[in-house]
Amino acid sequence: MGFVSRGFRGRRRADGPPGRVPPGQYVVTDFPVLSAGPTPDVPLDEWRFTIAGEVDDPVSWSWDEFRALPSERVTKDIHCVTKWSKLDTDWEGVSLDVLLDGVDTAAEYALARSYGGYTTNLPLEDLLDGKAWVAYAFGGAPLEPEHGGPARLLVPHLYFWKSAKWVTGIDLLAADRPGFWENYGYHNYGDPWLEQRYAGD
Amino acid sequence: MRSLVLDCPGWPGHLPGQHVDVRLTAEDGYQAQRSYSIATPADGTRLTLTIERIADGEVSPYLADELRPGDGLELRGPIGGWFVWEPALGGPLQLVGGGSGVVPLMAMLRARAAAGADIPARLLLSARSWDEVIYRDELERLGAGGGLEVRFALTRAQPPGWTGYARRIDHDMLGEVAWSPEEMPRSFVCGPTGLVEAATRALVELGHDPATVKAERFGPTGGPG
Q1: Which chain A residues contact residue B217 at CB under 8 A?
Q2: Least C-beta-crowded within 10 Å: which of A62, A152, A167, B34?
């Protein structure tokens, strides 16, 4: 046993079913808002989602085209690097498998781009095989701007800063390129079960 | 509210606005960790955290009530590199805070004062009442020193004869007290989500480039999502 905080017992809150809460996290019932700047105002008639980069032909959708794609309703646990986890969150969105279907690329990395300039990077394989969505609804209602609406990336198996709010596209890249928080000392990959919070974890 | 002055051997230094993760460990190995903004500019191995006691919290009641001089504390940092300012970056400096959101802003103002910098700065600070204004005396002293204008918005209760604002921070208030966009201020907004959303939106509506408006939410959280 290493360091002990004299007099600390902890609240031992009931943290949900075993195996659901990664190390160092606690469960919240509200939905905290975190972002690094103003919430962008994105009119739906100007919204676009574009897959570009290492592709022969970029593909792009207007809001109406995007909403006409097959969508899914998924229930996921989400984990923020600032220590809160929220269980059984209810989303509707379009799977990245749908968006990337037919996109021919040799890229192994992806950089999500958002309105307002935010970026975050992740391996392309983390967007595939039912692991990621572009979500437009939360709890059955349109996603609120402060939570990333009109649409945000949803990659629940990684810390939630990877689930870029106000997402407008994904660049497919041959070489990994750190995104916004990844450039400020946060972990390049961000697996909550390995507590990959900061560079070097 | 309690300020903890910590001596951290090997501390590498930090920039005003950065935070630390504090980790507590119980006898049986149970751990809890939270992030806290650093309230002071770099000063050797010494740094100050200002802790708001969250009534149903797990870490802040320990730090606010239980921790004594001489106790050890595990912390990690400095963390964050976006919501930071140091005098070399220049100004004008536009700070908007609510409640304990003033803590990282205070590190910036203390750095400004310590450098003897004459960088023009404005702070608009919201609190529920005069008694709940953190660093009240120090802010009044710094504000009397010239170059820094401090304005308060007291949202719930105001002392007799109060001439400051008596409502939440809004568009019109920022229109009155904020630098104009032509002055190219560096803006930092820290507080609860409602305040941050309202203030950052208002600054953009007033013509400030969104890229110059940096935000951080305080409370049980801080940093990215």
Answers
A1: 32-35
A2: A62
Task: Parse chain A into domains and list their residue ranges.
Answer: 26-33+45-194
What's the pLDDT score for residue A2?
A: 83
| Out of A6, A37, A160, closest to residue B215 by CB | A37
Span B62-67, average pLDDT: 95
Q: What is the pLDDT of residue A34?
A: 84
When the pLDDT of each residue in chain A is averaged and rounded to a whole number, the result is 95
Please give the helix or strand (H or E) that residue A165 lies within, else none. Answer: none
- pLDDT confidence band for A169 (50 / 70 / 90): very high
Q: How many other CB atoms are there within 10 angstroms of residue A3's CB atom? A: 11
* A181 to chain B: closest CA residue: B224
Selection from A131, A129, A180 nearest residue A157 by Cα: A131
Which positions in chain B touch A154 (Cβ < 8 Å)? Answer: none
CA B85 to chain centre: 12
pTM: 0.93
3-state SS assignment for residue B175: helix
Classify domain A26-33+45-194 by CATH number. Answer: 3.90.420.10
- Angstrom distance (rounded) from CA B209 to CA B207: 6
Question: Beta strand A133-138 with A141-142: parallel, antiparallel or unpaired?
Answer: antiparallel
Taking the C-alpha atoms of residue B92 and residue A115, their distance in angstroms, rounded to an integer, is: 27
Which residues of chain A are within 8 Å of residue B211 when distances are taken between CB atoms? 37, 117
Q: Are strands B19-25 and B31-37 parallel, antiparallel or unpaired?
A: antiparallel
Interface A-B, measured as beta-carbon pairs within 8 A, has a size of 134
Chain A residues within an 8 Å CB radius of B225: 32-35, 80-82, 160-161, 163, 165
DSSP single-letter state for residue B218: -
A3, A29, A34: best mutation site toward chain B, by most B Cβ within 10 Å?
Answer: A34
The residue behind tokens 């032909």 is A57
**Mean pLDDT of the region A170-180:** 98
How far is the C-alpha of B222 from the C-alpha of B63, rounded, in Å? 17
Tokens of B173: 């208030």
List the single residue in A8, A34, A116 with the smallest CB-CB distance to B26: A8
